[in-house]
Amino acid sequence: MSEFQLTNGHVALLMLIALWDLAWKGFAMWKAGRNNDKLWFVLLLIFNTAGILPIVYIFILSKNNKKEKN
C-alpha cells in the first residue's frame, strides 16, 4: 500500500492557495459589506473555494448591484 507523504512542496502549495483565497475573500467580503449584501458576506465567510466564489462576486455580481442602484 502506498502512503501519501506531505512534502515541503505540498506545504508551500497549500500555503500559497490559502494566501490566494484569503486575499480574494477579504476583498470580496469588504465589497459585500460596503454594498450591504449580507447574504453574500455570510456565504463568502463560510465557503472556502480557493478564491473562485470571491472572484465571481467581485467581477460579476457586485457590478450588477451598482448598475441596479444607479
Low-confidence stretches: none
Round the mean pLDDT to the nearest integer and report it: 84
Q: Which range does the strand content fall in? A: under 5%
Query: Residue share in helices?
Result: over 70%
Integer count of domains: 1
Short description:
This protein has 70 residues and is mostly helical. It has 3 helices and no strands.
Q: What features would you describe in this structure?
A:
The protein is mostly helical and 70 residues long. It has one domain (21-69). 77% of the residues lie in helices and 0% in strands. It has helices spanning 8-34, 38-46, 52-69. Helix 1 (8-34) packs antiparallel against helix 2 (38-46). The mean pLDDT is 84.
Which structural traits does this protein have?
mainly alpha, 3 helices, 70 residues
